[in-house]
Amino acid sequence: MAVEKLVVRFDHWVDPIFDRTLSQASGISLEVLSRDTSDAAMRRLAAAHVYQISPAVNELPLPWRANKELLAQCPNLLCVSSGGAGHDTVDVDACTRAGIAVVNQVGGNAASVAEYAIGMMLAVSRRIAESDRKLRSRRGYTREDLMGHEITGKTLGLVGIGHTGRAVAGLARAFRMRVLAYDPLLSSEEISARGAESADLPALLGQSDIVSLHCPLDSSTRSLMDAEAYAKMKKGAIFISTARGGIHDELALRAALADGHLAGAGLDVWESEPPALDHPLLALDNVVAGFHTAGVSHEGRRNVAAMAADQILAFLRGETPPRLVNPDVWPVLQARFARLLGMQIAGNT
Question: Tell me, what is one Gene Ontology molecular-function annotation carried by this entry (predicted)?
């Protein structure tokens, strides 16, 4: 007899295509649980084969994050599926040790994030947000008081040129920008194929009029942009991040902006999200701020939800998921998959 496969998620907003796709699939049961800590939710999560998890740490209470304590209570769990490109709420190493696959939806909102990054560059360089605020609250200033700079023809430095960085490079061509990229995971030939000139980080910082982060947060990138890195940037350059909080040092950035070394910043991500209302960066007119919304467009959220649902269905059919984060899990996972679902899963190719 075929095993009914249980997928669970918590009750944060997800594009309806996710629930609709899974609910229409044969042999799949989808349950939406309350985030309020309860024994009932834990019982259903303990029975689940797939856990669709929010990657947003500000959205998901600590008891429901996929860490070793939670995994120890989930003997049937075969896959944790992140609802985004990141997986900040998932302990990947703990999942691997437990024989649980981790998948994400990388690339699903790349177009949305890339558009937003370009929008931040324009907003900071042309002082659009500052102009909006002043027009709503003050009179007695001139248009020249809000004079900014074009981004056309400038040099753009991308720290990371994955799905989103590549999309940004493509959009930058419309502004005839020279695009540099630093990505230690890619060869110079691959970086060139993605639309940028390869550069090491010091050269990129020293030559770029705009530096934009598009790398993940991990041990190699935490505090990558610190006081020393800001000092290496061109005087009058602009700093943009739509990546993750923690990659850039916020207080050091505030100092680089306050002393005039940097001309402005566009920040969609923060060490603590949302940042406190009295955060020192929010007091600066030359900072354009967002609440980690670069990927939050109707199209981006729909793409991510559809990709997640399709990948879960493929996984539960025994196929190798295309966006597997922890390929080392596969030998152990194959044995657990066969034992729990009574069917074979494909080899990880």
Answer: oxidoreductase activity
Has 339 been annotated as catalytic?
no
- pLDDT, position 349: 56
**137 CB neighbour count, 10 Å cutoff:** 7
What sign has the CA pseudo-torsion 80, 163, 225, 260?
Answer: negative
Tell me the pLDDT tens digit for each residue of 238-257. Answer: 999 999 999 999 999 999 99
Among the options 244, 248, 254, 336, which is catalytic?
244
Average pLDDT, whole number, for the chain?
95
Report the pLDDT averaged over residues 204-224: 95
In our burial notation (b when 16+ CB lie closer than 10 A, e otherwise), range 270-282 reads beeeebeeebbbe
Of the residues 35, 65, 273, 323, which is catalytic? Answer: 273
On whether the CB atoms of residues 62 and 320 are closer than 8 A, the answer is: no
Catalytic residue at 244? yes
Distance CA 44, CA 31 (A): 8
**Structure confidence by residue, pLDDT tens digits, 23-63:** 999 999 999 999 877 888 999 999 999 999 999 888 888 89
DSSP string computed for 173-192: GGGT-EEEEE-TTS-HHHHH
Instruction: Tell me how many degrees the CA angle 178-182-183 measures, rounded to the nearest 5.
Output: 135
User: Residues 127, 214, 279, 292: which is the catalytic one?
Assistant: 292
Q: CA–CA distance from 53 to each of 19, 50, 113, 233 (Å)?
A: 14, 9, 20, 37
What's residue 86's pLDDT? 85
CA dist., res. 77 & res. 100, Å (int): 7
